[in-house]
Amino acid sequence: MAAAAAAATSTSTTPIRKPSTISPFPVSKFTVPFAFNHKKPLSLHISNSLSNPASASSTTASPATTEKFSFSRFSPDQPRKGADILVEALEREGVKDVFAYPGGASMEIHQALTRSDIIRNVLPRHEQGGVFAAEGYARSSGLPGVCIATSGPGATNLVSGLADALLDSVPLVAITGQVPRRMIGTDAFQETPIVEVTRSITKHNYLVLDVDDIPRIVREAFFLATSGRPGPVLIDVPKDIQQQLAVPNWDVPMKLPGYLSRLPKNPNELHLEQILRLISESKKPVLYVGGGCLNSSEELRRFVELTGIPVASTLMGLGAFPVGDELSLQMLGMHGTVYANYAVDKSDLLLAFGVRFDDRVTGKLESFASRAKIVHIDIDSAEIGKNKQPHVSVCGDVKVALQGINKLLESGGAKGKMDFRAWREELNEQKVNYPLSFKTFGEAIPPQYAIQVLDELTDGNAIVSTGVGQHQMWAAQFYKYKRPRQWLTSGGLGAMGFGLPAAIGAAVANPDAIVVDIDGDGSFIMNVQELATIRVENLPIKIMLLNNQHLGMVVQWEDRFYKANRAHTYLGDPSNESEIFPNMLKFADACGIPAARVTRKDDLRAAIKKMLETPGPYLLDVIVPHQEHVLPMIPSGGAFKDIVHIDMPSAEIGKNKQLIYQSLQGINMILDSRETKNGTDFKAWREELNEQKVVKCSLTSNTSGEEILLQHAFLMNHLMKQLQKWAAQSYKCKRPSQWLKSGGLGAMGLGFPAAMGLLIQILMLLLWIWMVMNSSNECSVVSDFIYLSRSEILSDMWKFAEACGIPASHLTRKDGVRAAIQKMLHSWTILVGCDGASSRACVPHNAYWWGF
């Protein structure tokens, strides 16, 4: 997300940063003017980095007004190695911690680090772990993170982290060793042109060719990384430069005239007044806040207090406004809440602060906030108008803009002119009808419930990191973040393996905080080696592993868009599916970290409590069903009207139940009156229906589960069409006027008048309706599919049917398919496990929960 100016540049530990007027270095990626051509696809990514102006308040006014560095290991005129100059330059920038993994081309830097009494090196076990840890450090503290790697493969292992930091606007300085200058371009051992490799995924990068440039380059790197829209900067240092002796000049000014000239000024007061006028004229305003508001949380809260406008947050913006506040709509977008997406869809004014209109938020751009006027405030001019054209735009620091708006609100008496109570009541109704919820099945642990319990036991105060996948979205939905920088996740890049090393960085930056890595088994194992770092550093990181033995989010997309065809998404051992594989407890044990596994819901709270109370690191392996989907969900490229959620509103369920009872009373009256009971003969109709069964539902040994579903659906469709036609002709009935939807159940006929046509429709649907009415919250129809896996899951499905008082058959062998399906079609029976050959295949439950 487009971010506001980093708070790091205004801290007391930030060293001297002086502007300059000359630049001898070609600024390769930053030569394009920052505001030009941002709509052209080829220049978009470049200008994304070029247009990273600093806020006028925090970076341009006085870039050289911090405390002078007071200690050096060397006398002023004493020559020292380039590596020592580099380390001292880091010390002068206030660096206290680095994440560095040594190699041949960076050995000199590591030797210099051992001579520093200020900088601590946290040794990762992989360079990717190091760069993700530096990100976690920066995201949780607001200070720039620093990582160091050697040349060649060490440098290329930083690529994912650099790309992640660019997309999520994270201040990062990466330093890489390089082969000696004379060997550059000769394909020397462990040589890669890392400057060229990372040109499009860094805000800027340097290749140091003169040892005397090190002080200036390091100062510029930290200024670029933390000013404007923060981002990653890379410094590539050849080994001979590290070894060369020199006397540093610490007073050389920065040479960034182009960059400094493009920094945005303070917002025009006329623009702020125009925004207030739009707010006062609106009836349904909504705040859409992103990562750009993390440094302006206090101003944002004050603005909401003055206006009463509800707040929807992006994934990157969680915590900028307290999630538990009554005006919070929580997260919007693909897996956002129904009410947040509803608010944006129905709004007449969208206040987009520090956001970039990402595709996972907007879906179909033409439908996103289509009724609203849009106000866009962002520090990166390239983001304004890139995806969605605003009616009013301000290019500047969100913090400064909000300060100006709040000042106008407090002084002008505009607060009294704003009354959005009706709008808030409308949204509160949506909250009641469409809350974030989940279903439970017997003793299995719902992953959402695990996060809820963690939230309760930590009182919402933990710093939470995640990998990428379903667990990431559930952590965004069900943990109630109170403040900015509590939530650490890979948003734009979606890099699996991020959670564990990011937690390391957060624990280093916040030694007194509770740090929890909520991870999935797929993401966790990508950087599992960092358990060794956690143990050696004795970092009190708690790891709550939601283990479903699958790539959960990919499985969800397979289920919904690829007919549940499993394409290499099972992470367990196919030859022994009854066992949890790999055994995560043994990974922890190998690194000397206490660990436990929990499989039953009743044991979960005690297990999480023990995890939190155990000193030092701890791993809790929480076994969860892989059948669970992240809902709500707006399909990619879809609009709010396409949203999929767990079930219908509770109020609507109540209305339909009441209607059903009334209908049954009407049926009884009809049966008790006239000659209805003895005057109707359905023999011809039953013969026609049986003929359809024979023709359309004849099964062979090669009939697939999908073909069964299609045939069954055809039969149901034929039945309903015939009922409509016959009832309308005989009793002049209208067409169905209402659908009862609950987890894939479509009940036609609820809009018919109470006549004979109603009797026929209702009788055919009573079996369906009975299920919904007599199901508890735990046993209602919950989704479009039931997914079958290991034997214990099949057993749970069997118990689930029995718990609802419904006959069920358990099928595991192919030889019994014909008889079992015939029984299902001719009786009220649920068939569990009909896939036969593959125990990991999935079958749509809406075909198997009814029969004739």
Question: Describe it for me?
Answer:
The chain has 852 residues and is of the alpha/beta class. Among the domains are: 80-262, 3-Layer(aba) Sandwich (Rossmann fold), CATH 3.40.50.970; 269-434, TPP-binding domain (Rossmann fold, 3-Layer(aba) Sandwich), CATH 3.40.50.1220; 447-623, Thiamin diphosphate (ThDP)-binding fold, Pyr/PP domains (Rossmann fold), CATH 3.40.50.970. The chain contains 31 helices and 26 strands. Strands 3-2-4-5-7-6 form a six-stranded parallel β-sheet, sandwiched between helices. A six-stranded parallel β-sheet has the order 11-10-9-12-13-14, with helices on both faces. It is globular and about 110 Å long. Mean pLDDT is 80; it is low at 1-68, 648-655, 695-714, 725-804 and 832-852. Residues 81-191 form the Thiamine pyrophosphate enzyme N-terminal TPP-binding domain. InterPro entries: Acetolactate_synth_lsu (IPR012846), AHAS_TPP (IPR039368), DHS-like_NAD/FAD-binding_dom (IPR029035), THDP-binding (IPR029061), Thiamin_PyroP_enz_cen_dom (IPR012000), Thiamin_PyroP_enz_TPP-bd_dom (IPR012001), TPP-bd_CS (IPR000399), TPP_enz (IPR045229). Keywords: Amino-acid biosynthesis, Branched-chain amino acid biosynthesis, FAD, Flavoprotein, Herbicide resistance, Magnesium, Membrane, Metal-binding, Thiamine pyrophosphate, Transferase, Transit peptide, Transmembrane, Transmembrane helix. Residues 467-622, 722-758 form the Thiamine pyrophosphate enzyme TPP-binding domain.
